[in-house]
Amino acid sequence: MKIKGNVVVLTNGKLNTKSAKTAHGLIRGSKRFNVVAVIDSSFTNKFVHIDKNGKIDLLDKKSNIPIFNDMTSFLESSVKVDFCIIGVASAGGLLPDEMREDVILSLKSNISIINGLHSILNEDEELIKVSRQNNTKIYDIRVSRPRNELSFWSGKIHEVNVPKIVVLGTDCGLGKRTTAKLIVENLTKNNIKSDMVYTGQTGWMQGWDHGFIFDSTLNDFVSGELEKAIYDCYISKKPKYILIEGQAALRNPSGPCGSEFLISANVDGVILQHSPKRKYFDGWEHVNAVMPSLDSEIELINSYGKEVIAVTLNTQGMTDQEKIFHKQLISKDLDIPVFLPIDEGLDGILEILESKFYEN
What's the rounded Cα separation, in Å, for the pair 264 and 70? Predict the structure, then answer.
């Protein structure tokens, strides 16, 4: 889809939660969309601020991204947009009832919808009718592609002769895509040509050229689509490094995922994202789904014949003292480099990669 432009993002009162990770990814930067406003009733009249490391703050002080109460108040402003993006991940991937009015008003106001939810809004009779009546469109990013457009695994991955680094996580919603993006940006800052292969809807929205949407792809073709995305990136971009956005986690019981990256993508190294404060897999506390230890996750990855070359920490909910404590403790106990991507950036990652892959 050749669509891009200025956008307003709907976050349904969840802007400061991990449910708004699509919004966070777009706010941190996109080559496809420019976020010029957010609609979130919990933070009306505040402004979004992002620092150099990608940390997002909600401020009273005016900045480039204002927050409006609802679509009505946004439309009354002077801010103009090309699209409205649903910027949250909801329970079951359904369009929340409380967002429906804003979506309808957007369509009636000549603003097309970009939808990253599992729900296919082009199957919603009311929304289809409104869209047609107002000559606006609904773009369902997670719609499954037909089988004749999908690829089986072929073995071409073995022709990719540059380091392929996947960012995996010990759980869902830890910021794997953001870390992969920040690594590419750090390497670019140091004049190292690199690129990211996306595997989720937000990566497409951010405008990365190569990738596919993992959880909208028929299972038989996941390995082939992953291989094709990496191979195409290698051929067209000729990067020195390819970063790959991981999905879910190897041992998350609600959707175990990760072996495809280790085996089918034949990655050369793993960067493992972890949250020291999480005891249970996200959303599964009620069934006592305790997360395995970080060192056992590294051992599991090693059993695939792959090496974890660095650990990156999600520090949400931590004090500054806790951040430093866990960084130092993990680094000492596991004898592995540890980074705080959002708090401290990723300076030093280049030296680790160069030493691992290009120094004899």
Answer: 44
